[in-house]
Request: fold
Amino acid sequence: MRDVLFLDIDGVLHRGIARRAGNQVMSSSPYIKLFEYVPILDDLLSPYPDIEIVLSSDWSLVFGTEATCKVMPSSSVQERVVGATYDGCDFDSRLWPVLTRGEQVLDYVRRNRPLRWLAVDDRADGFEAVRDRLVHCQTDVGLGDLAVVEQFRERLQRYFKDAS
Reply:
């Protein structure tokens, strides 16, 4: 039985959406550092050592889960990553990107049946039936929004308090 956090990257761990430039990934603005909010995620998850991270980001589909994990500037976050939502999916991988983010997460939940789960994402599409399990970030703010961080902290406590 697993405790899972579904984690998006763009619009969550940094503001905006990253762009691919050849073999490099660049921020959407020269004033935004990629993964600028990883220390906040680290802090939020520290009381919950058993929470695993499943990437729900397009990064893992485009660059691969392992490569995505390696660019995260925190070994403790890297160690928590166990896969991506599309791992073992029943869908043709070409169709995966057209599913709503909620459909991707709920498909993973259906297939893997985690004990407890929560998602943090800047996309809310497909989460309508499980809205309380989504910590919704604004793309241009990510985890830089103190109200969202407090909501995230509260939801972690609500869903994972027995795991700490």
